[in-house]
Design goal:
The complex is a heterodimer of chains A (338) and B (294).
Chain A (H helix, E strand, L loop, with lengths): L1 H17 L1 H22 L7 E6 L18 E6 L2 H9 L5 E4 L5 E3 L5 H13 L5 E2 L9 H32 L1 H6 L5 H31 L7 H22 L6 H18 L11 H7 L3 H15 L7 H21 L6
Chain B lengths: L4 E10 L2 E11 L4 E5 L6 H9 L6 E6 L2 E2 L2 H6 E4 L11 H9 L8 H7 L15 H12 L6 E5 L7 H16 L3 E6 L2 H7 L2 E6 L2 E6 L1 H8 L3 E6 L13 E3 L4 E6 L2 H11 L7 E3 L3 H9 L6
Parallel strand pairs in B: 3-8, 3-9, 6-7, 7-8
Antiparallel strand pairs in B: 1-2, 1-4, 4-5, 9-10, 11-13, 11-14, 12-13
Classes of the chains: A alpha/beta (338), B alpha/beta (294).
C-alpha cells in the first residue's frame, strides 16, 4: 500500500516541480503576499480605530490632549463637520472629536468599533465630554458591508468562474477544437463574458433580495442605477479574469495569478473596512482595482441615494477597464496549450 | 482539375527539432488520402499545419487553389486525436453547439443516424464508451457538411469491432463525395480505407501513391513467414530478414515453389510456415529500416 502511495506521491511531486510556471508562482505568491501585507499592515502600532478630529490644520498635534496619544488609534483631520458626520454615519470614521470648547464627540450608535473608541475616549476625559447627535441617519454596519460582500462574491465568481474554466478548456484541448471552427477569439471571449454575466447577475439579485427581505437593508437610490453598476462591474471583473487566463495553460498557475488579483482587491477595495485612514498611496493603489469603483458607486447609490450622474466617474472607469482588459485579453488570447 | 488540397514545402522547426521538413503533397477531391508514419514522424504536426491550428515555420497550404482561409474553416471538418468536449452536455446538445458555429449546417437527426448515435443523443458526453465517443467526434467533424474532413488517428484505442464500425462510417462519408484525409499508424486501416497514401518518417514524405500500386512497384513477390523459434537449420543460403519484435523470419520470394524446396532442404520445423502478400508495413520497413510502430 505504501509503495503505491509513494509512487503517486512521487509522480505528483514531479509533475508539480516540472511545471515551472506553477512552481515559480507558488514560490513568488507567498513572498509577494508577505511583503505586501507587511508593507500595508506592518508595524507594531498599526491603528485599529480611526478618529476624526475637527480642525482646519491638516496635521494633528498629538500634544494637545493625551487622548491623541492613544495607541492603536489613527487621528485624521476633518475640516468640515458635515463631512465628518457623514463619515461617522458611513463607518468611515469610528468617532468624530472636537477638542475646542465645548469639547464634543459624535459616534455612530450602530458601529462596534465606535463603541470601543468611545470607551477609550471617555477614559481620557475624566472631566467629561459632551456627546453630540450624528446628524442625518446613521448607517448600520450590515448596510455598509452588504455592497462589499456582494461585490466580493461577484469578484470571485467572475474571476475564477471564467479564468479557471478557460485555462481548463485550453489544457484539455477544447479550445483547440473550437479553433478549428470559424469561431473568432473575440466571439469566444464575448460569449464567456455574457454567460458569466447572466449567472452572476441572477445570483447577486437573488442574494440581494434575500438580504433586503430578511435584514431590511438600506436602499436610498434607484435599483436601476444599482443594476447598471453591478452590470458594468461584472463585465470589468469577467474581462479581468479573461485577461489573466489569456495564455495560461496550468490550473495551478491560473489559481496563483487569480489569487494575486483577488487578495489585494479583497484587502484594499473596501470590502470589510473603509480605507479612510489608509495612506494616500494605498488609496491610489486601490483605484486600479475595479472592485474599488464598484463598491464606491454601489455604496453611494444604496446609502446616499446617489443617481447615475453622481456615480458616472466610477462607471466610466469601469467601462475603460473593461475595454482595456477585453482588448488586451483578446490580443493575447491563445487557443492551444503550446 | 484543381486538387482539394495542396501542401507546399511545409516546414515546422522547433528549437531542438525539425518536426516537418519540406513536406509537399496534394489531395484530389473525393478520395481518402492516408498520411502514414510511426509516432513522432511528423504527420500530426503536418496535418495540424494544414488544418490551421499550428503555424508553419514556412510553406503554404492551398484549398481548391486558394490560400486556406475563412472558406477553408467553413468547409472543413476536423476530428482531432485528443479532444475534450464540454462536460454535462448531451450528444445532441454538443452537435447542436458545434453546428451553430458554421453557416453550412448538417441536419442533426440525419447526422445522428449516420453516426449511429440516435439512441445516445440524450446521453451525457462523459458517459460514452471509447467507440461511442469517437463516433460523436466524427459527427462533430461533420456538423458543417464538410467538403474535406481530417481524421487524426481516429481508431486509436478502439476495440476491433468498434474499429470496423468506424471504418464503415468513413467509407460512407467518402462515398458521399467528401474528401477524407486520414492519419494513422494502422496499416490495415490505411489499406482498407485509403485511395492514396503518403508515408512520412523523420518529418519527410518518403513515398506516396496508391497502396496497391506502391506494393506492386516495390514487391513483385510474396513473403514466406516462419516463427523464429521454430527454425533450427541454416538459412545462410536463403535471402531472408529477421523481425525480432514480431519473432518471425521473413523470406521474400517470386518463386514460392523453389523457395519451399530450398527451405525443406535446409530448415527443420516448417509446420507453422505461412505465405502472405506484402503489406504497407513491409514497405515501410524496407524504406526506412525500422518498424512502423517503433
Amino acid at each position: 500500500m505504501f509503495a503505491r502511495i509513494l509512487a503517486i506521491f512521487r509522480a505528483r511531486n514531479l509533475e508539480f516541480l516540472r511545471d515551472r510556471g506553477s512552481l515559480s508562482w507558488n514560490i513568488i505568491l507567498p513572498i509577494v503576499l508577505m511583503f505586501g501585507l507587511s508593507f500595508i499592515f506592518g508595524g507594531t502600532d498599526r491603528p485599529q480605530f480611526t478618529v476624526g478630529v475637527l480642525q482646519q490644520d491638516e496635521a494633528i498635534d498629538r500634544d494637545v490632549h493625551p487622548f491623541l496619544q492613544t495607541r492603536y488609534m489613527q487621528f485624521v483631520a476633518v475640516d468640515d463637520a458635515e463631512d465628518g458626520f457623514r463619515k461617522v454615519g458611513r463607518h468611515q470614521l469610528d468617532l468624530l472629536l472636537r477638542l475646542e470648547p465645548p469639547a464634543t464627540y459624535w459616534v455612530n450608535p450602530d458601529s462596534p468599533k465606535g463603541y470601543y473608541a468611545e470607551l477609550a475616549l471617555l477614559q481620557a476625559f475624566p472631566e467629561g465630554i459632551a456627546k453630540g447627535q450624528v446628524r442625518g441617519d446613521a448607517v448600520r454596519y450590515v448596510d455598509w458591508v452588504l455592497p462589499g460582500i456582494l461585490g466580493m462574491n461577484m469578484m470571485f465568481s467572475c474571476l475564477f468562474g471564467v479564468g479557471y474554466v478557460v485555462v481548463r478548456y485550453r489544457k484539455n484541448g477544447f479550445l483547440k477544437r473550437l479553433r478549428a471552427t470559424p469561431l473568432r477569439p473575440i466571439e469566444f471571449v464575448i460569449a464567456q463574458v455574457a454567460s458569466r454575466l447572466v449567472l452572476i447577475m441572477s445570483i447577486t439579485t437573488f442574494v440581494y433580495a434575500g438580504t433586503k427581505f430578511f435584514l431590511d437593508t438600506r436602499m436610498d437610490g434607484s435599483y436601476l442605477a444599482l443594476l447598471v453598476v453591478a452590470l458594468l462591474g461584472s463585465i470589468a471583473l469577467v474581462s479581468m479574469g479573461l485577461l489573466v487566463a489569456a495564455r495560461v495553460t496550468s490550473e495551478e498557475l491560473a489559481g496563483g495569478l487569480l489569487n494575486m488579483v483577488t487578495w489585494p482587491m479583497m484587502l484594499l477595495s473596501g470590502v470589510w473596512f473603509s480605507l479612510e485612514a489608509a495612506d494616500e498611496w494605498v488609496r491610489q493603489v486601490a483605484n486600479v482595482f475595479p472592485l474599488t469603483h464598484i463598491l464606491g458607486a454601489a455604496r453611494a447609490i444604496m446609502l446616499d441615494g446617489a443617481g447615475l450622474a453622481d456615480v458616472a466617474p466610477q462607471l466610466l472607469v469601469l467601462c475603460a477597464m473593461s475595454a482595456f482588459f477585453l482588448g488586451l485579453g483578446a490580443a493575447l488570447f491563445r487557443w492551444r496549450a503550446n | 482539375m484543381v486538387p482539394a488540397l495542396e501542401a507546399r514545402h511545409l516546414v515546422k522547426r522547433y528549437p531542438s527539432v525539425l518536426a516537418v521538413d519540406d513536406v509537399s503533397f496534394d489531395v484530389r477531391a473525393g478520395i481518402c488520402f492516408g498520411l502514414l508514419g510511426p509516432n513522432g514522424a511528423g504527420k500530426t504536426t503536418t496535418v495540424e499545419i494544414i488544418e490551421g491550428v499550428t503555424p508553419a515555420t514556412s510553406g503554404e497550404v492551398l484549398y481548391y487553389g486558394e490560400p486556406a482561409g475563412a472558406r477553408f474553416r467553413e468547409e472543413v471538418g476536423i476530428q482531432f486525436q485528443n479532444t475534450a468536449l464540454q462536460d454535462y452536455l448531451t450528444v445532441r446538445e454538443t452537435l447542436d453547439m458545434f453546428r451553430t458555429l458554421y453557416d453550412r449546417r448538417a441536419d442533426i437527426d440525419r447526422l445522428l443516424e449516420e453516426c449511429s448515435l440516435v439512441e445516445l443523443q440524450g446521453r451525457d458526453n462523459r458517459r460514452l464508451s471509447g467507440g461511442q465517443r469517437q463516433r460523436l467526434l466524427l459527427a462533430v467533424a461533420l456538423v458543417n457538411r464538410p467538403r474535406l474532413v481530417f481524421l487524426d488517428e481516429p481508431t486509436t484505442g478502439l476495440d476491433p469491432q468498434a474499429r470496423r464500425n468506424f471504418w464503415d462510417l468513413v467509407k460512407r462519408i467518402r462515398a458521399g463525395g467528401t474528401t477524407v484525409i486520414l492519419t494513422t499508424h494502422y496499416m490495415d486501416e490505411a489499406q482498407i480505407l485509403c485511395d492514396e497514401i503518403a508515408i512520412m518518417d523523420a518529418g519527410k514524405v518518403i513515398t506516396r501513391g496508391q497502396p496497391e500500386a506502391l506494393l506492386r512497384r516495390h514487391y513483385p513477390n510474396v513473403i514466406i513467414e516462419l516463427p523464429a523459434e521454430d527454425v533450427s537449420g541454416d538459412l545462410s543460403n536463403i535471402e531472408h530478414r529477421v523481425r525480432p519484435e514480431q519473432g518471425v523470419i521473413e523470406i521474400p520470394t517470386e518463386d514460392v515453389n523453389g523457395s519451399l524446396r530450398d527451405l525443406a532442404l535446409h530448415v527443420h520445423g516448417l509446420n507453422r510456415l505461412r505465405i502472405r502478400q506484402p503489406n504497407l508495413e513491409d514497405l515501410f520497413l524496407d524504406l526506412t529500416g525500422h518498424s512502423l510502430r517503433a
